[in-house]
Amino acid sequence: MAKANETQVPTETEQNNLKIFDKVSNSVNINHKNCSYCSKPFTEELWCKECDPHHMIEDWTSGNNDVDKFIKDTIYDIRNINNVYNAQFLEWVPYHLIGLKI
User: Fold this and answer.
1) In which domain of life is the source organism classified (predicted)?
2) How is 22-91 classified by DSSP, letter by letter?
3) For the chain, how big is the Rg over CA atoms in Å?
4) What's the mean per-residue pLDDT of the chain?
5) Which ranges of the chain have pLDDT less than 70?
6) Is pTM beyond 0.70 here?
7) Alpha carbon distance 55, 35 (integer Å)
């Protein structure tokens, strides 16, 4: 059963610098008000419109420049919306992380 005072906060794994969400207690000393990259206030809960889209697209490629540009454009478009909770965008997921078997 989830605790009422738990919040999803991003953590980084060492493998591929993937951003995953893990539930941790609010009692942990985490700044829930400012971006850890630029120190500016979050535009939404745990979301920085300037930094998060950039970090979502660094160091990956689909192997197809047109596909890469299309995905990156949808991510960069997030900066132009008022409410990221209603945002729709694409994110590249490398095949080996999907866990599909052929």
Assistant:
1) Eukaryota
2) EEEETTS---SSB-TTT-PBPSBTTB-TTTHHHHHHTT---S-HHHHHHHHHHHHGGGG-S-GGG-----
3) 15
4) 62
5) 1-32, 42-50, 52-57, 78-92, 95, 97, 99-102
6) no
7) 12
Amino acid in position 30:
I
Task: Give me the amino acid identity at 96.
Answer: H
Cα–Cα distances in Å, from 8 out to 4, 26, 30, 102?
Answer: 12, 9, 11, 33
Distances (CA, A) of 39 to 11, 20, 25, 93: 17, 20, 22, 28
Tens digits of per-residue pLDDT, 61-71? Answer: 888 889 888 88
User: CB under 8 Å to 75, separation ≥6 — which residues?
Assistant: 53, 56, 57, 89, 90, 91
